[in-house]
Amino acid sequence: MPSVALRNVHVKYQLLSVRDYNLKNRLVQTARRKFHDPVVIDALRSIDLNIAEGSRVGLVGANGSGKSTLLSVMAGLLPPTCGTVRVQGRVLALLGGSAAGLDQEASGRDNIVSMGVQLGESPRAMRGRIEDIAQFSGLGERIVHPVYSYSSGMQARLRFSILTSLRPDVLLLDEGIGTADAEFTSRANRRLNEFMSSAGILVLASHGDALLQEQCTDAVWLDAGVVSSQGSVDSVLADYRGSFAAAER
Length: 249
Description:
Layout lengths: L2 E13 L2 H4 L1 H10 L6 E13 L4 E5 L6 H8 L7 E7 L2 E4 L13 H11 L4 H5 L2 H8 L14 H12 L6 E5 L7 H17 L2 E5 L3 H7 L2 E6 L2 E7 H16 L1
Parallel strand pairs: 3-7, 3-8, 5-6, 6-7
Antiparallel strand pairs: 1-2, 1-4, 8-9
Helix pairs in contact: 4-7, 6-7
């Protein structure tokens, strides 16, 4: 049974100043035993979340509020500075750009197999999907050509078609998946809706109210790494949008 549980999760980043990136300055500082105090960023603070099977959770907040960091923690890509993260089930985290994960030197066919394997699927299962993916993506016979010979739109369609052929228990999405061109959009939207609906758990970070209201039942508003509001999508969006009006007064 898929589930996600976070307990008192903190994530801190230590930033170097521009001076610290300069080798000469670093050597001088070392010789003089004089160092600048590091700048520490609290990306996430005291995060407690329980997400059960069947949940559809939207993450809202301004850029830099911690949404992508939280998804990375849930995906196991970023260990928390402190706290515990427990995720049950097969996780699929789609956090990159429209061509992320594609091997430019390999063919589209080989990318189908290798990307699926990287995301936990078997080579045999992915080989069985090659024809369907080639047809849905519109690549057809180009599927045997190297990816570097594809346009950016073709690469986006290939990646989208591969990813949405999978069936994860826990689906983590950052702003959805790029589909590149208008001709592909209507088919892609239908498939994306089916893809999100099939997941045992969906956590979706987005700035689009309509997408969140369509796909999610609950939401979490992150503000400077802290949970500011949690509850139904409509109530959390109202709190979040209301904060803009309050700031303008």
